[in-house]
Specification:
alpha+beta, conserved putative lor/sdh protein from methanococcus maripaludis s2 fold, Elongation Factor Tu (Ef-tu), domain 3, OB fold (Dihydrolipoamide Acetyltransferase, E2P), 4 domains, six-stranded antiparallel β-barrel, 7 helices, 20 strands, about 35% helix
Length: about 400
């Protein structure tokens, strides 16, 4: 009986100890979880980074010719339509030639009259020349005859010029293709009157070659310094959202475009369009590749944007003050032995690259606490940023954002 009682007492003590240990464990574990469940982090790794500049532009043929008319008239013949392939010299349309033929006949009649006047003037001059030699008429009459000959010759030249102009107008009434290409625009119809009184109307628009296109895009002045001729670019259009096209920078135009104090520059890109999927006038969303790094140390760009809360910053400041108090004596000694500061120590006299490429980020230590680290960055895009210097190495965990609950998340 006594043995049984001792066994019961021992068993009860074991139960109490087990319950106490379990309660302590359960009480401690949530605290540890709560301590760990503060941040989402990502590993520092090595890889490739490409930096791009985004811009929008319009796709157009490389050679685009507007065909107009130098004369006015009514369209009596139309031989070209949208999307027609035309050859150089091919007749596109004809204007009514009645008025032009009438002008030619009038000019021919004026030329014939001027020639008849010249013949009469020359005959009078020769007659007066003989009479002056025999002293039958005065020299003044001879001079007047010579003048009539000169006037007749000028009249012939004027009539000839008028005839040439009339013939040119007749030829211009026939509109021909100036180049080989495709008609992408037509603004005239059969029977419509063309008025070319003040300016030349555009009747057709012809693209030389639709297999070679170009994109004219506007790039901000902040990004223009990184662009060079021949740089690669990628773009998409709304018509083919799942397909990406390649392009190359051909020209950087020096003329600035200023709209509401925003300065941009026109950049022209060459595009191969052998499949002729791209059409004139399409809007292209362009990404210009301005930098590329291979196998570099990198962190998520989100880590540059993370900042501690006010409460955490206050704790960090108190901790830093404690460390500063412990090292105060050493700091005074170092300051006493340091050389006097110069004007160059002021940030205002440092180059922009020394100040703007430095960032403070936070990495997790062994206790999953955020520790501030100063780094210098290189290329950066929306996903990754290159690390050029600082207390970071591959495999470290950097904080990307704070978490409301749950375990530490490593991306």
């Amino acid at each position: 009986m006594k043995l049984f009682t001792k066994k019961c007492v021992a068993f009860a003590v074991c139960l109490v100890l087990a319950a106490t240990a379990g309660a302590a464990y359960l009480h401690k574990k949530p605290d540890r979880k709560a301590e760990e469940a503060k941040y989402r982090s990502a590993l520092v790794d090595s890889g490739n980074i490409s930096q791009t500049v985004a811009a929008n532009g319009t796709i157009n043929p490389v050679a685009l010719v507007n065909v107009g008319s130098q004369v006015s008239g009514t369209v009596v013949e139309l031989n070209a339509d949208f999307n027609d392939h035309v050859k150089k010299g091919q007749v596109l349309l004809k204007l009514d030639p009645i008025l032009f033929n009438a002008q030619i006949k009038q000019s021919e009649a004026n030329l014939a009259s001027a020639r008849a006047s010249l013949r009469l003037a020359q005959a009078n001059f020769e007659r007066n020349e003989n009479l002056v030699a025999e002293n039958y008429v005065s020299a003044l009459a001879l001079d007047q005859s010579r003048r009539e000959v000169d006037v007749a010759k000028a009249s012939i030249a004027l009539a000839q010029a008028q005839l040439t102009s009339a013939q040119a107008n007749l030829n211009n009434s026939v509109i021909r293709a100036p180049i080989d290409g495709v008609v992408i625009k037509r603004t005239i119809d059969l029977g419509q009157t063309v008025a070319a009184t003040f300016n030349t109307p555009n009747l057709f628009q012809i693209a030389r070659d639709l297999t070679k296109m170009q994109i004219e895009t506007n790039v901000s002045e902040a990004d223009i310094g990184a662009l060079k001729e021949g740089q690669a670019a990628r773009f998409i259009v709304d018509a083919y959202p799942d397909k990406e096209f390649a392009a190359n920078v051909r020209q950087f135009r020096l003329a600035a475009n200023v709209v509401q104090n925003v300065v941009t520059y026109t950049v022209v890109l060459d595009v191969e369009n052998k499949e002729q999927l791209l059409k004139p006038g399409m809007t292209a969303q362009v990404r210009l590749v301005v930098g590329n790094r291979q196998n570099v140390l990198r962190i998520p760009t989100a880590a540059l944007r993370f900042r501690l809360s006010d409460e955490e910053q206050e704790k960090e400041l108190k901790k830093q003050k404690g460390k500063d108090a412990d090292n105060k004596t050493a700091a005074v000694a170092v300051a006493a032995s340091a050389p006097a500061s110069t004007v160059d120590d002021d940030l205002a006299f440092r180059s922009k690259s020394e100040t703007t490429r430095s960032f403070k980020i936070y990495k997790l230590d062994a206790n999953n606490q955020a520790k501030a680290v100063d780094i210098q960055i290189g290329l950066s895009n929306f996903r990754y940023t290159e690390v050029l210097g600082g207390d970071l190495k591959k495999g470290d965990r950097v904080v990307t954002r704070a978490l409301a609950g749950g375990a530490v998340n490593v991306e």
